[in-house]
Amino acid sequence: MTKHVSFEFFPAKTDQGKANILSASEALATLKPEFFSVTFGAGGSDQQTTFDTVLGVQQASGIPTASHLTCVGSSRERIGTILDNYKANNITRLVALRGDLPMGMEDPGEFHYANELVEFIREHSGDYFHIEVAAYPEKHPQSIDHKQDLDNFVKKVKAGADSAITQYFYNPDGYSYFVDECAKAGVDIPIIPGIMPIGNFESLSRFSDACGAEIPRWLRIRLETYENDPESLRAFADDYITQMCMTLMERGAPGLHFYSMNKVEPNMQICKAVMGSFPQDFT
Fold first, then answer.
1. How far apart are CA 199 and CA 217, in angstroms?
2. Which amino acids are annotated catalytic?
3. Does position 41 have pLDDT exceeding 60, yes or no?
């Protein structure tokens, strides 16, 4: 089976930021990714910005571009309108997510969980969209335990998901174990590991603590030693992520999905190294 890479962008607020996204997408398109994706704000707070970014990236790069679509706090009518708009503009991929309830809003609306969104997309649009869903090898931070988390993931798959992208992680063993658990539960869709290159360790540490992504203790200590040496930190981090990606490929991962942070490097460097080591898989 041919393996693929893909990259995620987040909508920019400034004209320069928007130009940077388009430039990055054009550069990363040279790697022939399967798709790009663009994140969606909590409760649809930046729906139009996401929509514009998706269309802009797909037009500039020539690469199919998926929109993140959140459902909590929304309605079937509103989601249906969004789906129609994407279909009218030749967008064929979606990343279906529950999302976070907007601050100050207590009623989640007509959708409570991501599996309900997937079901509605299939009801509304049939098989038009390729639907990605989220997976959490280290457990969603709001799940009670791993069993509940796995059960919720299986519901999304049964609702009609085509493939899944994981939360980023730094322990490939956790990913491998999660994939094995999913197989035992009857999941047969591709589960693509999410990859987050390491730049600013302080920011990464705060974000990881908030979203439940574990940084192994040995890795955290090693990164902390480079606190005042960003050049050495980047060299070590890029090497570690590259080696982790190669390990994932060796273990049969169907591809790699990079949280690009709207940057070309180090995503380009890491991908070239991995693809160069597995030329028979990336064709």
1. 18
2. 8
3. no
